[in-house]
């Protein structure tokens, strides 16, 4: 068994869509052994083949507690058959995205069909961390990282902030300029119907200063 190098962002390989495995042979089993060792060494609870640079639809996982026995799981060509409409939130991290963690919503339960280490077809009903981890790993097979959801979230938050900023500006700016015009008019050409009608602007303040209070001659 060999510990392989985990590739990290930004690396275009992580964006590749992984290819289905024809047959679970020696090569695939060696890859799964290496992936598991690489995952334990990292340490992590799941690893997709693309994270060691191999674009095959293979995932390894072990969500058992450290003190307990190891419970390695192998998924070849996994397909999600069913997703629970109810979402669950987990703080996620990724070995390919060091030092970033974020709460991500995903279906709380899912059913996944796959081939095991020996190429035997299996169906697994997953919930909790297992369901989250399977979905996180299956995203890797599509070239998707958890931070992609984050940036969408950030984008929508940004647009909300921008929207509020625009609304506030639309309210505040006219109020400020209205106030200024009022003030200017009062101090200089107040009661000057002509000035008001002309709509005195800031630039005209220097001229308006020449007017006397109540002067309506201009
Ligand atoms: O080690 C890992 N922990 C983890 C925690 C919450 C949700 C998903 C994961 S997977 C991650 C390992 C990894 O990057 N797998 O692709
Ligand atoms: Ni990951």
Layout: helices, strands, pairs:
Layout (H helix, E strand, L loop, with lengths): L25 H16 L4 E3 L9 E4 L11 E11 L3 E8 L2 E11 L1 E7 L5 E7 H14 L4 H44 L3 H6 L6 H4 L10
Antiparallel strand pairs: 1-2, 2-3, 3-6, 4-5, 6-7
Bound molecules: ligand GNR and nickel (II) ion.
The site of nickel (II) ion has 5 residues, from helix 2.
Describe the protein.
A five-stranded antiparallel sheet has the order 1-2-3-6-7. Strands 4-5 form a two-stranded antiparallel sheet. The longest helix is centred in the C-terminal third of the chain and has 44 residues, at 146-189. The relative contact order is 0.12. A hairpin with a 2-residue loop joins strand 4 (87-94) and strand 5 (97-107). Mean pLDDT is 81; it is low at 181-218. The protein is built from five helices and seven strands, in the order αβββββββαααα. It is of the alpha+beta class and 218 residues long. Bound molecules: ligand GNR and nickel (II) ion.
Can you tag this structure with a few keywords?
alpha+beta, 23% strand, five-stranded antiparallel beta sheet, 7 strands, 218 residues, binds nickel (II) ion, binds ligand GNR, 5 helices, single chain, 39% helix, two-stranded antiparallel ribbon
């Amino acid at each position: 068994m060999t510990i392989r190098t985990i590739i990290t962002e930004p690396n275009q390989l992580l964006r590749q869509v992984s290819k289905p495995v024809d047959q679970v042979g020696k090569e695939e089993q060696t890859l799964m052994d290496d992936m598991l060792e690489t995952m334990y060494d990292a340490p992590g609870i799941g690893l997709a083949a693309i994270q060691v640079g191999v674009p095959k639809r293979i995932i390894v996982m072990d969500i058992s507690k450290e003190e307990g026995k190891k419970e390695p799981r192998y998924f070849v060509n996994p397909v999600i058959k069913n997703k629970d409409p109810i979402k669950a939130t987990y703080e996620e991290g990724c070995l390919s995205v060091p030092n970033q963690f974020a709460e991500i919503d995903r279906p709380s339960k899912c059913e996944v069909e796959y081939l095991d280490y020996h190429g035997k077809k299996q169906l697994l009903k997953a919930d909790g961390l297992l369901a989250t981890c399977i979905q996180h790993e299956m995203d890797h097979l599509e070239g998707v990282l958890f931070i992609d959801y984050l940036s969408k979230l950030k984008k929508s938050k940004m647009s909300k902030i921008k929207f509020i900023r625009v609304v506030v500006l639309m309210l505040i700016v006219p109020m400020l300029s209205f106030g200024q015009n009022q003030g200017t008019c009062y101090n200089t050409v107040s009661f000057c119907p002509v000035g008001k009608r002309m709509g005195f602007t800031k630039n005209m303040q220097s001229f308006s200063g020449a007017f006397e209070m109540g002067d309506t001659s201009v």
